[in-house]
Amino acid sequence: MARLPLKQLLQENPKKVLVLDGGQGTELERRGIEVANPIWSTIPFIDESFWSESSVERKIVKEMYSDFIKAGAEALMTVTYQASFKSVSDNTSIKTLSGYDSLLTRIVDFSRGCIGEDKYLIGSIGSWGAHICREFTGDYGPNPETIDYYEYFKPQLENFNKSSQIDLIAFETVPNIHEVKAILSWDNTVLSKPFYIGLSVGDNGLLRDGTTMAEIAEFIKSLGNKINPNFTFLGINCVSFNTSSNVLASIHELLPDMPLLVYPNSGEVYDSEHKIWLPNGDKSNTWDLVVKRYIEAGARLIGGCCRTTPQDITEVSEAVKKYTK
Ligand code: MET
Ligand SMILES: [Zn+2]
To answer: Per-residue pLDDT for 274 more than 90?
Structure first.
């Protein structure tokens, strides 16, 4: 069954909450793919051997999608978070724009083949900071306003814009206000299909660069009807599980009419000194509880980010069913 256009689905079903998949990068790692390299989880697609039917890595990616779908995911992301033209051309043998474009098209078409026609495919784009591992600090240097964000995103955006397989473009883990402003300054010639912004927010409830949610909301309101009509969701991703529902509620209070999205990390806490993940100390926080709060706070797209697995998505989808009845 073919899917309805995303915007139509949301408009015709005001209570519909879409279940997203979990963290593809960490899930592939959990399944045995070595992702520690500058283009992270996109690495398996670079070697020509991936495209042969017998490839083990190809099987792993397919199974990951199939397991997220069995868990209840209705929208799944391409594994292209760290696959900007700059990252790919600086770190692999693919150096030309046309070679890059072919790579993305291959990944997108393969991902569509894995998920089928009835699910939504989201084109993942990591923030500018992701290519220098700054998505959790927001430190974009002394003149973040002078960075040419469009130049950086253009090749990936153009591919996703023209692809009939991509339903929604995701700017993920955006930590800096100047980047948010740049993305929202682009009209529908630059961003010609539904898109969202996932903010990278700390436990203090601030964008990683220190900007308050109120400043972001004011900026969005100031755009008035000049805002790109394809701006479909605002929200947070790769944020801590325990604080995510409070942050989302604060955005909802400021922008009550904006459809929101949220996909936090698993409840584990990263110990950067020992480079290990520790279990969630706060047992009172369950998916059932946070999903209930997300829905109360206007979330229309809910899933998991780093270290979340199909088991997490099963719990998310059960809670979504329960609280959207
Ligand atoms: C660092 S956040 C990563 C988000 C991306 N969608 C992934 O899980 O692969
Ligand atoms: Zn993440």
So the answer is: no
Task: Encode pLDDT of 104-160 as tens digits.
Answer: 999 999 999 999 999 999 999 999 999 999 999 999 999 999 999 999 999 999 999
| Residues 276, 298: Cα–Cα separation, whole Å | 33
* 306 CA closest ligand 1 atom index: 8
Q: Domain locations in the chain?
A: 6-323
Q: Angle at CA 289, nearest 5°, toward 286 and 294?
A: 120
**Does 133 belong to an annotated binding site?**
no
- Check if 24 has its Cβ closer than 6 Å to any atom of ligand 1: yes
CATH 3.10.20.30 is the classification of domain 6-323: no
As a whole number of angstroms, the distance between CA 209 and CA 177 comes to 7
Mutating to test ligand 1, I would choose from 306, 307, 313 the residue with most ligand atoms within 8 A of its C-beta, which is: 306
Q: Is 114 annotated as a binding residue?
A: no
Q: Across residues 79-93, what is the average pLDDT?
A: 98
By the 8 A CB rule, do 248 and 177 touch? Answer: no
Q: Measuring from atom 2 of ligand 1, which residue has the nearest CA?
A: 238
pLDDT tens track for 25-54:
999 999 999 999 999 999 999 999 999 999
**How far is residue 72's CA from residue 69's CA, in Å, rounded to a whole number?**
5
Q: Identify the pLDDT of residue 202.
A: 96
Residue 305 annotated in ligand binding:
yes
pLDDT band at 271 (very low <50, low <70, confident <90, very high): confident
Mutate to test the pocket of ligand 1, among 65, 305, 307, 308 (most ligand atoms within 8 A of CB): 305
CB 152 within 8 A of CB 128: yes
What residues have a C-beta under 5 A from ligand 2, the ion? 238, 305-306
Report the nearest-CA residue for atom 9 of ligand 1: 25
